[in-house]
Write a structure and sequence with these properties.
11 strands, 3 domains, about 300 residues, Arc Repressor Mutant, subunit A, about 20% strand, two-stranded antiparallel sheet, alpha/beta, elongated
Amino acid sequence: MTLQQLYYFQMIAKLQHYNKAAKELHVAQPSLSKSMALLEEELQVPLFEKQGRNIILTKYGKVFQGYVNSILNEIERAKNEMQSMLDRSSGHINVAYISPFGHNYIPKMVQKFLTREENSNVTFSFREGFTGSMIRSIHDNETDVVFGSYEENEPELTFFPIIRENLILIAPPQMEIAEDVIHSIHDFQKTPFISYDHSSSMGKFTRKIFREEHLMMNFVCESSDELAILALVTNNFGISYVAETKEVRAAIQDGRVKQIYIEENNYRYLYMIYKNGQFHEPAVEDFIQFVKNEYSIAY
């Protein structure tokens, strides 16, 4: 059974005449008759019977007609949905991001994209998570664009840098530290230390720095992002080595944590991540190009 046979059947059932159906379908009548004979042979029931110079549906044909109409209606709906997805002005984009992007950066970026008249009808879905799991969702075609950290061994993905953030050492406000000297992380190896979750990209990245510096930090707990780490540092659980996000800078400025000035000069990049060489619907391509044009940084 082929899709063509279903379209043929639907037209014959509608016009109740082989010759008229053949003309409407732009096929030869013998080809049409043969196609229906093969369909009846496959179904093992007669679908049509003669009535004078016309034909009518048998009881089997009437039942089959209901299913055929339903199937072909769904196919038309699917075709319309595909065309809608190809419409630059009304596509849908699935975006995922790590927490530093979610509080301010992504909303402003998307709002700026949508203010352009040609993008005003594009819709978005958002979710937050770890870079690793979100990258898996790109490979599974569940997510179009991820904003997150770098992951190694991902040759099928493009990592386009859009943010650079310094890494800084922060401490509880009540911790006594000499503020007139530049310290080193090495000076604080015995101090209780709060790290990023070891399975997260930032957890892996900071631990790599510690290994390269031959540091043995006194890990006492882990947390998922800067906001959670700030809460722990504020409540005197220990010190931490974090990205200097807007939230971290605000916490330093209002005295909830203090910055320990150190000689180490490390930083991290955050990226827009998407699949290489894959067909993206036009709205997704437009969004990727918009981010490249508006948010590119020197690497």
